[in-house]
């Protein structure tokens, strides 16, 4: 189950949050090749962030997945998510960071067990 955690310092209203959740779910699903029903997106908003000695709008994200990620996929996903966030929240792509985690099945819990 891919889990995508987004942390931003930009206040997000409910409509924009819903759009980001939908767009991010579609992007993760399509790019890593897993069904949308497997994807979880968490949007943490209005979290203070300082980067490069400024507090301009920024985002930090983490994608955790059991396989299906690597250099090419990560680059495509980074580009696509940066585009979504620039469109929806006016966050410049130079202020967007994503860390990718490829985890083993036994390190991902679900439904009272592991995958």
TrEMBL record:
<protein>
    <recommendedName>
        <fullName>L-dopachrome isomerase</fullName>
        <ecNumber>5.3.2.1</ecNumber>
        <ecNumber>5.3.3.12</ecNumber>
    </recommendedName>
</protein>
<dbReference type="GO" id="GO:0050178">
    <property type="term" value="F:phenylpyruvate tautomerase activity"/>
</dbReference>
<dbReference type="Pfam" id="PF01187">
    <property type="entry name" value="MIF"/>
</dbReference>
<keyword id="KW-0964">Secreted</keyword>
<dbReference type="GO" id="GO:0004167">
    <property type="term" value="F:dopachrome isomerase activity"/>
</dbReference>
<keyword id="KW-0202">Cytokine</keyword>
<dbReference type="InterPro" id="IPR001398">
    <property type="entry name" value="Macrophage_inhib_fac"/>
</dbReference>
<dbReference type="GO" id="GO:0005615">
    <property type="term" value="C:extracellular space"/>
</dbReference>
<comment type="similarity">
    <text>Belongs to the MIF family.</text>
</comment>
<dbReference type="GO" id="GO:0005125">
    <property type="term" value="F:cytokine activity"/>
</dbReference>
<keyword id="KW-0413">Isomerase</keyword>
<dbReference type="InterPro" id="IPR014347">
    <property type="entry name" value="Tautomerase/MIF_sf"/>
</dbReference>
